[in-house]
Amino acid sequence: MSVKYGILTLLYSQKNHGYELKLELESLLGTKGKINAGQIYTTLDRLIRDQLVLSVGMDDQERKLYEITAEGKKELENWLLEPVPYHSTKDDFHFKWSCARKVGFEQEKEMLEQQKAMIMKDVMELTKLKTDFLLQGDENRYLLITGTLLYLEADLNWIHQVENRNQS
Measured in whole angstroms, how far is the alpha carbon of residue 82 from the centre of its chain? Predict the structure, then answer.
């Protein structure tokens, strides 16, 4: 999970202040945990330094407001299109997909297709390894790879469900 991209997602459609970004990011993460307020402000400082976000004054309660730049939007859109490798975690892709939904990302279909392609590449490689381990009599590795393949199959099924709901 990337606080950087979470903040860019939340600033994509409106200016906001740090504490509200913290609350909305925790909401976007769902059950995945709490965010330290210091992490929000440190990340905002880096985003400003990298010219992805601007500090644009204060709100009516004297809280500093932040706004995404055109370069920040481009950075977010590029990140959304990068498939998430399986050795990362599927939670990373689910977070990325939630970010895409939050901003109404027009290339969501392409994002899903790229993720499916990466999963299929992993499935093909692991299936070959699984066969090799079966032929070698290495039952432990065979079973571990079988488990990983089941997770990948579940991820593919989930993506198909998302695509089917998008079509209705």
Answer: 9
- 54 contacts 48 by C-beta, under 8 angstroms: yes
Q: What angle do CA 53, 55, 56 make, to 5 degrees?
A: 115
Rounded Cα distance, 75 and 72, in Å: 5
Q: Phi/psi class of residue 62: alpha, beta or left (left: φ > 0; alpha: ψ in -120 to 50)?
A: left
Please tell me the distance from the alpha carbon of residue 119 to that of residue 114, in angstroms, as a whole number: 9
Distance, CA of 108 to CA of 86 (rounded, Å): 19
The dihedral through the CA atoms of 149, 150, 151, 154 has a sign that is positive
- With a threshold of 0.85, does the pTM exceed it? no
Three-state DSSP at 63 gives: coil
Q: How far is CA 139 from CA 78, 124, 142, 147, in A?
A: 41, 19, 5, 12
End-to-end CA distance of the chain: 29
pLDDT tens, 19-62? Answer: 899 988 887 776 556 788 888 999 999 999 999 999 998 888 88
For 56, the 3-state DSSP assignment is: strand
Q: Are 6 and 99 within 8 A, CB to CB?
A: yes
Distance CA 148, CA 153 (A): 9
